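# nightly structure sweep
# worker-07 picked up a monomer target from the shared queue
# config: single-sequence mode, recycle default, output format = structure tokens
# input follows
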Amino acid sequence: MQIPTEIYDHIVHLVWNVYNEFLYLEDDARNYSIIGGGARRDLANLRLVNRAFCRSASPWLFRHINAECTSSLVTPSLEQIMRLSKSPYATCVCQIDFGFKESRQSDASTLYIEDLAERHSSLLIKFTNLRALGFHEPPLSLPQAQRAAYIDTVISIFCYIPLPSLSELEVRFPITHDFGRFFPNRPNSLQTPIEDIIQHLRHLGLYVCAYTDSADQRHKQTPVLPEYTAFPNSTYPPPIYSEWLKMRQISNHSSCL
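# output follows
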């Protein structure tokens, strides 16, 4: 007796829903996220049961890809996602997160920044159903030049790569001044205006991760980097944040600017 495809699909959705039924508000606003490793593990195991489960579970398993840098992986995360981009499952990918899982500097983080800068254009264009992007902040332990290189790469993704279906975006930069780079004084004629991307978003999250004034610190263990003291976080949020919001009434937005 052949079991209807709908039964497999329903079982797979129940497995996913076990881990995603009760979410924080900011997570619940996102359509494509898979929260926690348990859901990924169980979906991966379901794919091994038979071909029918493989067909039903694959779109859920590959809908959200975490491509963050970590030194614990035998195969670097960007190498894994490059392989995925060349597979039939590339069309299942709806959300990709980039960034760093570790706060300390390592050879892996240096290579990650270099590889992302080199590969991002040829990589993202392969995921034709991409709906959501997330960029986590670079570790403050990285040299300033590497942090700047990572931010430049993130900016260039929105300037030069077509993202017609993007509806969810979260960006975490060290300080609020970094967000001003989305609005250059002299935009290149070849660049896609960030306004064109923002007007299609239904979810937007903007966050900062570094202090610019020791008086604002909650935990004194985290030093204020000298290069950040000239750009106080309190000076830049109003113009930058209002610039994002006035372009469109985004249905869900959050910030820690």
